[in-house]
Structure formats: structure tokens, C-alpha cells
Design a protein that fits this description.
Layout lengths: L1 H50 L3 H22 L5 H29 L3 H78 L1
């Protein structure tokens, strides 16, 4: 009984650990996608502001900027893979740069310097936004690969645990049969 409980307990612990790892990595991917969406929307709203400088567009730009910054801070606490951390650091640097371009575009547009705003938008802000998007996609790819590796490792560990359980069960059954034959022989020998 004790021999059978050990692999079952181990399977249960592995399932809990696996579930925790997958949930954490899934959350990181979702948060990273949230940054990706906010950065994309921020870029669209900056372009919209240049074409139509309304308070609503300005508010949307600031809103997406805040979502991006807060989500970056949240995910910064949970990313553990060094490559993903490097990408996130790059995103932070590019986001600060993008925010400065965005503020400059807003200022130029407010001063009715549309040509200068468009120049900064297309020569600086758009490439920076694209670099951010590329790094975000890289983090998503890293996390997805890590989830797939974790899944494969957990599947292998569970398979090994099942093989151990079957081996222990077969060994236990053979020992029980051997003991039964031994006891039966010791009982029937004196009776002959």
C-alpha cells in the first residue's frame, strides 16, 4: 500500500507544480499581449491626434500609455527567463523613447506644426513602436516555447511515474503469488 501511494502522491504534486507553472506562464503571455495591444492602440491614437487633435484622442493616448507602463511593471515582477527579461528591458527603454516622441508630436500638433509632427511620427515614433512590437512578440515566443518545454518535461515525468507504479504493482503481485505458493507448499507438505 505504501509503495503504491508514493507514485500517486508524486503524480499529484507534479500536477500541482505543473498547473502553477503553466498558469504563471499563461498569465505572462496574456499580460505581454495586453502590452502589445496598448502599444498598438497608442500608435493609432497618436496618428489620429495628428490628423484630428481632439481632447478625446489625447486622452486615449495617455490612457494606453498608462496601461502599457502599469502592465510592464506588473510583468517585470514575474518574468524569470533571462532572455525575456532582456527583451522587457529593451521594451522599457523603447517605451520611454516612444513616449517622448509621442509628447513631442502632441506638442508640435498643438502648435499647428503638422509637417514636423508627421516627420517625427514616421521617422522616429513608428520605427520605435515597431521595435516594441517585435520585442513583445519575442517575449510571447519565449514564454510559449517555455510552456511547451514544461509540458513535455511534465509529460515525461508523469509517464515515468506511471511506469514506476506499474512496475511496483507487478512486483508486488509477483511477490504475493510467490508468498502464496510458499505458504501453500509449507501447509500441504506436512499434510502429505
Amino acid at each position: 500500500s505504501m509503495l503504491i501511494e508514493l507514485p500517486l502522491t508524486k503524480d499529484g504534486e507534479m500536477n500541482k507544480n505543473y498547473t502553477f507553472i503553466i498558469e504563471e506562464e499563461t498569465t505572462q503571455v496574456i499580460e505581454t499581449q495586453k502590452i502589445q495591444t496598448a502599444v498598438a492602440l497608442q500608435g493609432l491614437y497618436v496618428r489620429s491626434y495628428v490628423l484630428q487633435p481632439t481632447p478625446a484622442n489625447l486622452e486615449r493616448i495617455k490612457q494606453q500609455e498608462e496601461i502599457t507602463k502599469s502592465t510592464i511593471n506588473n510583468i517585470d515582477k514575474t518574468l524569470t527567463l533571462s532572455k525575456a527579461q532582456q527583451e522587457l528591458q529593451f521594451i522599457k527603454e523603447q517605451e520611454a523613447l516612444y513616449s517622448s516622441y509621442s509628447n513631442e508630436i502632441i506638442q508640435l500638433t498643438s502648435n499647428d506644426q503638422i509637417e514636423e509632427a508627421l516627420t517625427i511620427l514616421f521617422n522616429n515614433a513608428v520605427p520605435t513602436n515597431e521595435a516594441i512590437q517585435q520585442s513583445i512578440q519575442e517575449i510571447i515566443n519565449i514564454q510559449t516555447d517555455n510552456m511547451n518545454t514544461s509540458n513535455a518535461n511534465m509529460t515525461n515525468a508523469i509517464s515515468l511515474s506511471q511506469i514506476i507504479l506499474i512496475t511496483i504493482s507487478i512486483t508486488g503481485t509477483l511477490i504475493a503469488i510467490g508468498l502464496a505458493l510458499y505458504i501453500t507448499r509449507n501447509i500441504t507438505l506436512p499434510l502429505k
